[in-house]
Amino acid sequence: MEHTSLLERILRGVALTLVVVFFMFPIAWIFMMSFQTNETILRIPPQLIFEPTLANYTALITGKLVTAAGTLDIAFMRNLWNSVFLSVTSVAVSLLLGVPAAYAFARHKFRGSEDIAFTLLSFKFAPALLVLLPLTLYFQKLGLANTYIGLIWVYQLICLPLILWIVRGYFEDIPADIEYAYRIGGHSWFATFRKIALPLAGPGIAAAGLLAFIFAWNNFVFALVLASADKQPVTVGALAFITSSGIQYGQISAAIVLSITPTLALALYAQRYLVEGLSLGAVKG
Amino acid sequence: MTAATTQRAGPSGFRISKRVLPYVLSLPALLVCIGILIPFLTSVVYSFQRYRLSQPWARQFNWGDNYISFFTDPKFWNTLKVSLLYAGTTVVLELLLGLAIAMLLQKRSTLNNFISIMLLMPLMTAPALAALMWKLMTNPGFGVLSYLASLIGLQDFRWASSPSTALFTVVLVDIWVYTPFIMILLLAGLRSLPTQPFEAAALDGVPRSFVFFRITLPMLTPYILTATLFRLLDSIQQFDIIYAMTQGGPGDTLTVFQVEAYLNFFQSTNVGRSAALMIILWAITYFLSNIFIKNWLRLRERARGQA
User: Fold this and answer.
1) Predicted model pTM
2) Interface residue B293 vs chain A (CB under 8 A)
3) Model confidence at A97: pLDDT above 60
4) A Pfam family name for this chain (chain B) (predicted)?
5) For residue A35, what are the domain limits?
6) A152-156: long-range contacts, CB 8 A cutoff, minimum separation 24
């Protein structure tokens, strides 16, 4: 590293620029498209300079799309709300179920503990449709088809393994001696869990929750198979939108921008924990 | 025995036996396990049945027929071929690109850290939405990439709508989304490597290709393996990008396992064939995930040890 020649530094600079352009360009371009009217979007060659308009966003937020052919109702805000509701609730349920289990797995080596943990992990890597397709038939019989409860239940497949494995790692990092000392002081198991273990693993739990939220938000196939239009999150809704609205490219871009902003913002906020979370605790960031 | 353990549970708080406590805590996770296992077993049963949603009366066990028919079914071989081709191409390209970028960003500097955070953005974009973004950019009418392609002489480059370039296009989207994943894992790996071997090599004036192949790569291997297997497991099951981009088309160019199973289930309502496809995919991923989990555990132990 010490003796880098000028040529090498230039080459590195060029390579890095290309990398940044390749990975940033699509986001920047869609962002720009979302502030353009259809007219400027369709102009060839594509314009870098244009008069920005908020019309696409107002159309999405008011749910009324005024076209030459008449007014069109768009339910995109509904999709956005579904995404928020499904992701937040699923993560909350997952944390409620997963954190105590993670604690049990970290602190007690009991019969079957590794089996349960590994079954959950191995199903994280199993094809989603393997479980989803029979579930559609079951859900129809159980009356869970196209309900929030059914969807939240299925979303546990995404969130629970993630939370269980990440949080378990954080609990394992806490020296057991601290907890023993507190227990010897005459405190119950629950008090120890609440007063010692939870606060110490707090950042890890928050990180796991954020990551689970991102994964739940970005999920596509679960809702595609199990939800109809009124329960669909943005990932499925945007796809339906692109076919139903036909050529409203400005609004589609605006819808995409609104759909990806929450996860991008969260990721930037929590980037410190992402490496550890994405590798399920195998790589420290 | 139970009385003794209950007493040991402490003077205050809940009097739950120490033996039972972990089971109580992990019960919900256990229930979710069962909730996954039931549909999984149902899939196994379906895969041995002649079962079409359109003809529920004709539903009966045909045992291995769904599987045996695959041998003579060109559509199945196409599915297998496209899935392996997709997984192989994406993983190899992402690994090479991810390693290269990680090495470019290895030195800790404000600019490098900033870029590596920026590169997280594609990874955090929902793959289905990423596919839509690329679909807009490759639109033959106004897509900026179609325009750029025409500038370099590719006048009629059809991207995902032509059978000859469809695979290229979805692989490109996959690379855009998932290269940062490999990059950040390898970057964390590179930055955690001990510095002494590199300092020693620099003192001895060892050529840099030698340092790369004999020091960096071997020490990075566990990270590379974990990242690769992670991606391979994901990539062979890719659904979101391909479905959102082309729904498996044009024709059956991109009918990878999950897309083919989805189309079989919802379009031709052939539940039996769909389930058999999923079982085969599951067998492949099960095999891969066993190798993966072993390697991942080793790396995890090491990370915990360093903590």
Assistant:
1) 0.88
2) yes
3) yes
4) BPD_transp_1
5) 6-73
6) A152/A86, A152/A89, A152/A90, A152/A93, A153/B35, A154/A222, A154/A226, A155/A86, A155/A87, A155/A90, A155/A94, A155/A216, A155/A219, A155/A222, A156/A90, A156/A93, A156/A94, A156/A97, A156/B32, A156/B35
